[in-house]
Amino acid sequence: MSNSVSVVNENGVAIVTIDNPPVNALSFHVREPLMQALVDLRDDASVAAIVIACAGRTFVAGADITEFGKPVQQPDLRAVVAMLETVAKPTVAAIHGTALGGGLELALGCHFRVADAGANLGLPEVKLGLLPGGGGTVRLPRLVGAAKALKMIVSGSPIGAAEAHEAGLVDAVFEGDLTTHAVNFAREIARKGGPFTPVRDRDEDLGETDLAAFDAEAADLARKARGLEAPLACAQAVRNAVTLPFDEALAAERALFAKLVASDQSRAQRHLFFAEREAAKLPGKDTPKRRIARVGVIGAGTMGGGIAMAFANGGFPVTLLETSMEALQRGLGMIEKNYAVSVSRGSLTEDAKHQRLAQFKGSTDYADLAECDLIIEAVFEDMGVKKEVFGKLDAVAKPGAILATNTSYLDINEIAGSISRPRDVLGLHFFSPANVMKLLEIVRADKTAPDALATVVDLARRIGKVAVVVGVCHGFVGNRMLAARGSESEALLLEGATPSQIDKAFTDFGWPMGPFQMGDLAGLDIGWRNRKARGLTAVIADTLCEQGRFGQKTGRGFYLYEAGARAGVPDPEVEALIREKAAERGIAPRAIGAQEIIERTLYPLVNEGAKILEEKIAARASDIDVVWVNGYGFPIGKGGPMFWAGLEGAARIVERLDHWHQRTGKDVFMPASLLKRMAETGSWDTEA
After folding, report:
1. Rounded to the nearest 10 degrees, what angle do helices 77-84 and 28-42 cross at?
2. Which of the residues are catalytic?
3. Distance of CA 88 to the CA centre of its chain
4. Does 60 score more than 60 pLDDT?
5. For residues 131 and 235, what is the distance between their CA atoms, to the nearest angstrom?
6. 592-606 pLDDT, tens per residue?
7. Which of 67-76, 263-272, 393-402 is predicted least confidently?
8. DSSP assignment of 271-297, as one string?
9. Running DSSP on this structure, what letter comes out for residue 324?
10. Which residue of 135, 342, 431, 595 is surrounded by the most CB atoms within 10 Å?
């Protein structure tokens, strides 16, 4: 037929094989020959049954999202599936690897679905700000029920073959050669005879749907969506499958899809999809990588323990080093406790917990790190302490071992320059809790060897992290921009805003929490200690810390926390303190609106990002977006700070920064030259 679609007739069972590496996406050059093959086979009397299979490592893993937003070339997926449903002879989708998005929708067009035991099936379009646009919201409920379909589609999370079989999505699960099993399955079904009912006509169970329970679940999902449009549209589309005739529900799905695909939110989420993949690319893709068989972690505290868990979860043996046996046992005990929590929640089996704990080897002797290929220190954030640790590593680490620091701020060039092997040194800035948070800032020092960098970028993927390579500066990308975002926080308080007003401006924008809520959660003493080390002050926050108000862990910070409560309430004592400090400085309080809060916090955030691009600390504006969405909670529906700047209007941001610079004289408001150029050209390209 074509390079992308081939057909073999195996004694009356036609095997249609899609071959479009790497993930068999349903591009136009696949859909066109697939449509023709199915039409030919439908009318071929020598064919008793049809099996749709895929070459390579996976079934169809989705549509070609590069086609979104462009004129659709016919046949589109909906036309292929609709034609497939006109075939009177049995059709079977043979699913291995993953059947995702358009891939699962193609499979739903078949009468039957069989799967390899290791297959995963799902409709993840919501993660791109979309809903399934090829009939998935209307057909899936007819197989698994409305409640199960709602959960699958709104979460976007795939399910395994066994669960799919139990739910009715898959008709059989096989071990071994799937295509052979699928052909035998199809032949037996054809022998038994029809009629074979398309999924679209299997609506006998939908009438039993408890709509009140469905609506309650949908309302709960809406609350969790935090302003995202796609989850709500997904829920509505599944409800339509229950309440409307098939063709009307299908048309409604298409209308919802068309609205979403044109929205800023979906554009933002698709931007992030490509940005994450771009961030993992390095120049010189053929750079050899070093072998990493064992990982060493120095420090078994919260951060070190989390890092160690991240590698153990990824299948790597870990040597965990502490200064004393007491500290080591405390750290290992916390790791075991964390795994026990996962078991209690059902996200980990007892056997898996024991397998992961078996990956750990505890030690108090640096000599035990000699067998490690990668060693990460996660000790106190102090240059002297870091250099002392690296001096010891220089003496014991084997040649070629990669030596990494988990510093959040410190100069990695200075650390690397303190030992005899600077080419082996780089930064791995994990985010807490390190076993959960996706982001990993990989900091390239001046003398970091290309193969060391390529090795850890690949390693990040293997342990499930979203990696972004950045350069050396104070705070790198994330924390440097965080400082710019927070530079006006206390000024806003002193001028009349309350912590809860500022936090509400952030949560209304789409952040999961505001800066004062976050400070209380993390512990105000962390920032206090960092400021003191740098000779800086923050009049309100420092005073709170001097009073022992460190946030949630002490029950008092910017907010008051009742025993065990995670949500704080405004504290009149804090508001009185703010007014007192303002009066001492002769500042008369005034009303401050949400727009001013955004201008004085998020506009400097964007501005600092522009400076980072100018200095080539980040390679791409999209890399900055990946950092902020995955590490700091920037709303995914806005695509990250640099993408959002385009939506907000760079010219407006420049104008308002100029306004605040003239009013305050503060450098944080001085527009970067690249931001000004962005306002003129619409591009973050530093070479323009």
Report:
1. 20
2. 105, 125
3. 42
4. yes
5. 9
6. 999 999 999 999 999
7. 67-76
8. HHHHHHHHHT--SSTT--------EEE
9. S
10. 135
